Amino acid sequence: MRTSGVTDVVVGMHPNDHLCWPFDDFAEFRARAAEFLADGLELGQRACYVARGDDLATHLATEPVLAEALRDGRAEVVRLEPRSATATPEEQVKVYAAATRAALRDGFTGLRVAADATALVRSPDSLDAICRYEHLIDRYMTAQPFSAMCAYHRAELPEPTIARLNSLHPVNNARCAPFRLHATEDGIALHGEIDSVSLDLLSLALDNATPERGALRVDATGLRFIDHHGLLTLHGYARTNAATLVLRSQRSSLARLVSLLGLNDVKCVR
Amino acid sequence: MTGFYHQTALYGSDDEFLTIAVPFVEGGLRAGQPTVIACAEKNTTLLRDALGRDNGVTYLPGADQYARPADAIANYRDLFGAYARAGAPQIRTIGDVPHPGLGVPWDWWGRYENAINQVYAEFPLWGLCPYDTRITPAEVLADVARTHEYIATASGEHLPNADFGNGLALSRLVPDVLERGSPLVTLIDPTPAAVREAVNAAIGGTSLSDDDAHDVVYAASEIVTNGLTHGVAPVLFRLWADASRVVVTVTDRGPGPSDPLAGLVPTTATRTAGLGLWILHRTCDYVSMGLGDDGFTVRVSVGGPGQT
């Protein structure tokens, strides 16, 4: 079971958890990244630190276990090169999938990455691409032992960008987005609240959610509120993709709203 | 006959009621027209006794059919539509519209009586709305007079109603009895998310069912959204509650929706506001809307003694 929620603690995560970590202060980011990676080593995952700058190994000095792991090859640092950004989202997922396979081959239980990805978000196009990547890699993580902490430096990005990135991760360090949309084994899960204020963000977040086998399966168990705008957006997205919207919720209110709106092609399950 | 023949009948005794209602029903049956009785319990019993059994009348329990105006419209539209598609040249319906004399607040039923002149115009329908002058308040009778184009009399006449279409816009704002106390929540220009959080916190101690709790949160979120989107600031949100019932109001300085059908039908023309208002008209126990000295107010009540 993957973790889903808002937290300020990076330790105790599962081997396939996916965190969004907007930060104000680089020292704070480096300390959290080091904790996250050290925790991954405990789980037997190979650790990989991706960041800008020189002497990346010194970034991780707060966790002595990482220094040792860097020496014996259980951990590595990767300097984020501008050219990294030219990979398509699909290619980038393939890179990490290959790295995860390699880690497994080398006897690790999986791969864990902590990355300052701020530099990858430089234009509206690259934002769209990284959002697509975030959802694709999230889907990959539902089935593979790959975990990641995607950190973004707040001062370099506008707030709506942070909110959009936040909305695409199962784990956040702050409520920058009113809801979270993440991948599940057979579709997507929604958490938080969706109203007319968050409607545009929902459309953007949905954009990369590809229905499978003719169904858009939405686990709404963790959704505290959704209004008819949100529901109609989900319904419209499913229809546009020739899929049936399947809503999972323990509450009767969602099924009542579906029935009231006459959405006869929506399937409500518990 | 095509179109909606919207008729009222004012009666002062049970005999007068039957004198008007029985020929109306029998005339429909004789002509082979679908004939529907959706009266309150007392009038239903009177008609059943007068008409006898097995006569082809469709009885709808008035308490269900008239639970909410938006429900009544949705159900009647389905029913009338089915009759019309089956080729009925005319449909007859007699129904007791609720009012304070029957223990039900009037505002949204006043809006209903006005709105159905448009809403049912597509059906070949003769609708008779009887009102008992022994128990119907004067302000209700005034609204009845301006919303019904025709009047049936105990002497068997069917007259045009001279008062039809006259007078002020419908709906006077009647504060809920809970509003005599101080509001538990007062917010000015809140975000819908802040309103939902405040309502959830405030109703935690009430006996509302999960569905009712959801309905009042939804309604509060929706009417604040409407106030912020379509109204004029400041938008004032307030909540009152006792052990089993919650009342929320939203007041803004604007004139409110100009469409008299707002909330009663799922309007697609103004999808943003129309559908949301309609949803709370379908889920909440009472919704009133109207202009007062402070501006335009939407008032919603959910729950109450005996409701679970």
UniProtKB/TrEMBL annotation, chain A:
Q: Which domain of life is it from?
A: Bacteria
PROSITE patterns, per the entry: STAS (PS50801)
> Which part of the chain is the STAS domain?
188-270
- Cited InterPro entries: MEDS_domain (IPR025847), STAS_dom (IPR002645), STAS_dom_sf (IPR036513)
Its recorded name reads: DcmR-like sensory protein
Species this chain originates from:
Lentzea atacamensis
UniProtKB/TrEMBL annotation, chain B:
Q: Which organism is it from?
A: Lentzea atacamensis
Any Pfam family from its record, for instance, is MEDS
Q: Which Gene3D superfamilies match?
A: Histidine kinase-like ATPase, C-terminal domain (3.30.565.10)
UniProt-listed CDD domains: HATPase_RsbW-like (cd16936)
Annotated protein name in UniProt: Anti-sigma regulatory factor (Ser/Thr protein kinase)
The record's keywords, sorted A to Z, are: Kinase, Serine/threonine-protein kinase, Transferase
Q: Where is the MEDS domain?
A: 6-148
Start and end residues of each Histidine kinase/HSP90-like ATPase domain: 193-301
Q: Which NCBIfam families match?
A: RsbA_anti_sig
Q: Which GO terms describe its molecular function?
A: protein serine/threonine kinase activity
SUPFAM superfamilies named in the record: ATPase domain of HSP90 chaperone/DNA topoisomerase II/histidine kinase
KW Oxidoreductase (keyword) present: no
